[in-house]
Write a structure and sequence with these properties.
It contains eight helices and 13 strands. The chain is α/β, with parallel strands linked by helices. The strands form two sheets. Strands 6, 7, 8, 9, 10, 11, 12 and 13 form an eight-stranded parallel beta sheet that branches. A hairpin with a 4-residue loop joins β4 and β5. α3 packs parallel to α8. The two termini are about 30 Å apart.
Length: about 240
């Protein structure tokens, strides 16, 4: 069954306009048919279409179910946006499919793209959440200056992945503790600067490598997220 997203469904029992148009105009669903709706906060609703119009679809809630995430600890991926928007959009889609709690675009010294439109990323995240049958929408934060982020990041396991071989690193898969909230820093195409690496280490981040392969920024983030999930799945 196709899922829809309505963050305020418990308050208004109505699909947002974009989902409503998809439901009525594209899928041609009609009154009396049943659909599934998620609120992005962990709840799944079985609903019956009560009334349709050009821009609105009113719903009757039949059943409310909790649909928690399938992984326990939180995962935050803080990453310098890629030069090309399509690669960042692809990454957000895949991170949501795999499972992530928070995505933070970072403004780094060597960033080729200093800012990014989070509204577009939000839409992609919503689509990926529905497609991957999740009910929790990850938090996509505004672009944050690198130093501000590492200065305010506290608690859990914190890592910085970089390429500079002159600064010793440990293999991420061996250093990651299971069942622990985790934050991973991923740098821009030109890597973190030595100053940024030093600042992260002084702030308590642990230096890691993601292996011997040379990875693009978006690939590195995906490998890190997948490693996080594998380690936590093995430990269960």
């Amino acid at each position: 069954m196709i899922r829809f997203y309505a963050p305020d469904i418990k308050q208004c029992c109505e699909l947002p306009e974009s989902d409503s148009q998809h439901c009525v105009r594209v899928l041609r669903m009609r009154e009396g048919q049943e659909i599934e709706v998620v609120d992005g906060r962990g709840c799944l609703f079985r609903c019956r279409i009560a009334l349709t119009s050009q821009h609105h679809t009113l719903l009757e809630i039949i059943e409310e179910l909790e649909l928690p995430k399938v992984w326990r600890p939180d995962l935050t991926v803080a990453i310098a946006p890629t030069k090309h928007n399509d690669r960042m959009e692809w990454l957000v889609e895949k991170l949501v499919e795999i499972g992530v709690d928070r995505i933070v675009p970072l403004r780094c010294e060597r960033s080729e793209r200093k800012d990014i439109k989070t509204e577009r990323l939000q839409k992609i995240a919503v689509s990926a959440m529905k497609q991957s049958l999740k009910a929790i929408l990850p938090d996509i934060q505004p672009t944050t200056p690198y130093m501000d982020f590492i200065g305010g990041c506290r608690g859990g396991a914190r890592f910085i992945a970089y390429c500079d071989p002159s600064i010793p690193r440990l293999l991420f898969s061996r250093e990651l503790p299971a069942d622990t909230d985790t934050t991973i820093l991923i740098g821009p195409e030109g890597d973190f600067s030595p100053k940024e690496i030093t600042a992260a280490l002084e702030a308590g981040f642990r230096p890691i490598s993601l292996g011997d392969n040379r990875l693009r920024t978006e690939t590195a983030a995906l490998v890190a997220a997948d490693t996080f999930h594998i380690i936590n799945q093995i430990s269960q």
